[in-house]
Amino acid sequence: MSQRDLVVTPLDVELLVAVERSGSVVAAARSIGISRDRAVYRLERLRRRMSGPVVAAQRGGADGGRTGLTRRGRSVVSGGSEAVAWPSPGRPPRHQGFVGTFRRDPEPRVVARDGFAAAVAFAARDGERVAVRIDPESIVVLLHPTRSSARNAWEGTVERVRAPPARDRSGRRELLVRVGPRRLTVALTNESVRALRLVPGRRVTLLAKATAVRRVGATPGSRPG
């Protein structure tokens, strides 16, 4: 999928998170290394594509007011870079997530009660309960296991391949894969689905870098994945 097909890009998500953190579009732009004009352009583009504002000025407070996220803006942050023009730009789908225990050894990872585990790139206290989300856009599908720099490799079985509505021309499919006790959603193009012959029952290996597993509600001072 090309960047043109996305309603929301990873940079958009990063910008919105920075706005919420700093309370200022100017400060947010500076913190992520883009110009104010570029930040304003991206926020306006999101407003058009999401059919409403994603940020709004809030009056009051010791500093005379701040800029924060609207409900649409918060839904974008929750949906992240998977929030594409399908199935509904007004209600972007949420990242898949789970709650588990952070383990430091032999490598940083989060382990759910059902045994599902994901390597992560953020820091937390050993034994701490944390919530994480896995970005469906960042998962790679392989037909056979292979050596890779990705620290997460999950073997599973394709359960469903969901196509977008007829009006959508992004060329995107959603793959639902059963991995042990849970299901994972993967975002793929039509070309990838055809090339890999992905149909229900097909065994696959899913690869994801540790940075694709992001912590939800990280405490101040924690290092994001």
How would you sum up this structure, described in words?
The protein is α+β, with helices and mostly antiparallel strands and 225 residues long. The protein has 2 domains: 80 residues, Winged helix-like DNA-binding domain superfamily/Winged helix DNA-binding domain (Arc Repressor Mutant, subunit A, Orthogonal Bundle), CATH 1.10.10.10; 121 residues, OB fold (Dihydrolipoamide Acetyltransferase, E2P). Helix content is 23%, strand content 31%. It contains 5 helices and 12 strands. The strands form 3 sheets. The chain has a 5-stranded antiparallel β-sheet, with no helix packed on it. A 5-stranded antiparallel β-sheet has the order 7-11-8-9-10. Strands 1-2 form a two-stranded antiparallel sheet. Strand 1 and strand 2 form a beta hairpin. The radius of gyration is 19 Å and the shape is globular.
